[in-house]
Design brief:
Structural class: mainly beta
Number of strands: 7
Largest sheet: 5 strands, antiparallel
Strand content: over 45%
Helix content: under 10%
Number of helices: 1
Radius of gyration: 13 Å
Distance between the termini: 30 Å
Shape: elongated
Order of helices and strands: EEEHEEEE
Strand order of the largest sheet: 1-2-3-4-7
Length: 84
């Protein structure tokens, strides 16, 4: 269940009070002309995280297989909709 904000979200997989994934999108347009995606998870549950640029429809998918400790998502070149 997501807890939305303008540029970040907390997600739980089993109960609303047990957060498992934090995702945030940062406007890095001034630095490299891209939107940046960062994520941190505290789980070994399988998931696919899809981040969609609502301006262009461009997507990035980050996956974690079942039984694998989720790595941090650090993608400062994720999406390129800085042409606003």
């Amino acid at each position: 269940m997501p807890i939305p904000s303008d540029d970040s979200g907390l997600f739980s997989f089993f109960t609303p009070s047990n957060w498992a994934l934090l995702v945030k999108v940062i406007d890095g347009c001034a630095a490299n002309g891209r939107l940046w995606v960062f994520g941190a998870a505290t789980t070994n549950v399988a998931y696919d995280l899809t981040v969609t640029d609502m301006l262009t429809g461009e997507t990035r998918v980050y996956e974690n297989p079942l039984g694998t400790t989720a790595p941090a998502v650090v993608d400062p070149g994720a999406l390129g909709s800085c042409r606003r």
